[in-house]
């Protein structure tokens, strides 16, 4: 990500005050620094979002799950979705439900201003998702006006995220997220905690 500081008079970029923000690298560095493996799938920003983007990304995630996760059979898998990728990640969970319920110990979704994804309403999957998935949302997200159900996961309302771009949310949440993840890896199971939970 490139953050540009522009001049008010000409709208040209002030190079000396502009800088690169690599939020993904921050996460990769933390994960590899703790001797864990990582599969990173980046969804680049586009001006005109392709109609089949969600399906294409879901198909890619299914391919990676089948080819890498199933093939290597890791004991503890953590799924992290951000921005538009959250919807496709929920699609993966629906498509590989039993395998994911067996292997995944934590799911974190940071949709930002995008639609909050849901998994199948099937009782076993939605119950698992509610106890396993932490969905971190700005307090001003329109989702809070809806009735929140199990298939939405455990949703947390976080005032600090209001009006933040997704990349900034990732930086802001980094330390708390990995503290939560480390608790789960030590305990071996979900440890749900949130600012506000409204699940039925």
Automatic annotation (TrEMBL):
Top-level taxon of the source organism: Eukaryota
InterPro entries, alphabetized: Arb2-like_domain
Sequence ranges assigned to domain Arb2-like in this UniProt record: 5-182
Pfam families: Arb2-like
Record protein name field: Arb2-like domain-containing protein
């Amino acid at each position: 990500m490139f953050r540009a500081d522009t001049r008010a008079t000409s709208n040209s970029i002030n190079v000396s005050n502009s800088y690169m923000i690599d939020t993904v690298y921050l996460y990769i560095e933390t994960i590899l620094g703790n001797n864990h493996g990582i599969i990173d799938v980046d969804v680049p920003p586009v001006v005109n979002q392709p109609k089949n983007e969600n399906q294409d990304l879901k198909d890619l995630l299914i391919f990676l799950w089948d080819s890498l996760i199933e093939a290597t059979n890791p004991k503890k898998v953590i799924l992290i979705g951000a921005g538009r990728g959250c919807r496709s990640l929920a699609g993966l969970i629906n498509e590989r439900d039993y395998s994911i319920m067996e292997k995944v110990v934590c799911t974190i979704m940071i949709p930002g201003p995008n639609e909050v994804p849901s998994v199948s309403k099937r009782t076993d999957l939605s119950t698992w998702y509610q106890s396993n998935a932490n969905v971190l949302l700005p307090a001003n997200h329109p989702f809070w006006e809806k009735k929140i159900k199990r298939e939405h996961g455990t949703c947390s309302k976080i005032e600090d995220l209001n009006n933040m771009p997704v990349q900034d949310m990732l930086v802001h949440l980094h330390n708390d997220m990995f503290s939560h993840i480390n608790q789960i890896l030590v305990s071996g199971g979900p440890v749900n905690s949130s600012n506000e939970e409204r699940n039925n």
